[in-house]
Recover the amino acids of this structure.
């Protein structure tokens, strides 16, 4: 046994895997000085796992999972027990009412969630709901933000079906597949695009209406202001930027 240990160098340390009797997901690798007393080791572990020093029992296992010894003497230095890198230090929490028991520190489903009724929430001041209500009340009731049916029609003059294009944001490239009104999406003009890569949200059908056909996740319908037509060839996926 390690009782034959005579001298421990001041800078000698050991890297141990630490486990816990109550915390199944607690298994960090922690470096300890071999000069630390067992009590000092417990204090260090208390700050990491929550088990109090007086309720903590330590067991040392080798790297083949065989138990070497119990660290029962708080006054002895850790080096007395001759731990090696890769050994496991197991924390046994002896307190049945410990904060680590019952899974409270690991399973958030066990924590009672705070709930508030709609009535009580509506009485609170300073909430986003109150802020939104205040902004809404400041909009004159006789002003209606109506979008005309020809909204952005002028921007579609140079956007033709079959044209290569680039869509912002993101610089997504593809082919124009639709230009016109799309009432389910809102008043005004829209542009349908089949992207070169699966960067879209659909296959050309939106809200039950088919505007064009393309592979799944390659389709997008955007406002004309986001579309630039021109010489936008497909990007080479293997092309690398210069360093």
């Amino acid at each position: 046994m390690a009782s034959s240990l005579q001298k421990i160098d001041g800078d000698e340390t050991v890297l141990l895997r630490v486990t816990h009797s109550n915390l199944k997901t607690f298994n960090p690798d922690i470096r300890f000085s071999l000069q630390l007393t067992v009590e000092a080791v417990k204090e260090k572990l208390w700050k990491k796992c929550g088990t109090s020093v007086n309720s903590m029992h330590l067991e040392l296992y080798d790297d083949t999972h065989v138990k070497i010894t119990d660290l029962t003497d708080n006054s002895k230095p850790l080096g007395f027990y001759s731990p090696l890198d890769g050994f496991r230090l197991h924390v046994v929490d002896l307190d049945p009412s410990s904060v680590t028991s019952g899974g409270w520190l690991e399973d958030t489903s066990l924590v009672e969630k705070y709930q508030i009724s709609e009535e009580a929430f509506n009485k609170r001041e300073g909430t986003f709901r109150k802020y939104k209500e205040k902004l809404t009340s400041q909009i004159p009731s006789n002003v209606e933000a109506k979008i005309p049916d020809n909204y952005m029609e002028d921007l579609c003059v140079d956007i033709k079906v079959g044209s290569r294009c680039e869509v912002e944001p993101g610089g997504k490239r593809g082919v124009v597949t639709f230009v016109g009104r799309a009432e389910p999406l809102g008043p005004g003009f829209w542009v349908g695009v089949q992207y070169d890569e699966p960067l879209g949200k659909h296959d050309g059908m939106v809200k039950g209406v088919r505007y064009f056909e393309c592979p799944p996740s390659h389709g997008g319908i955007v406002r004309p202001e986001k579309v630039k037509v021109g010489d936008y060839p497909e990007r080479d996926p293997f092309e690398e930027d210069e360093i």
Residues 3 and 71 are 13 Å apart (CA to CA). The first strand starts at residue 13 and ends at 20.
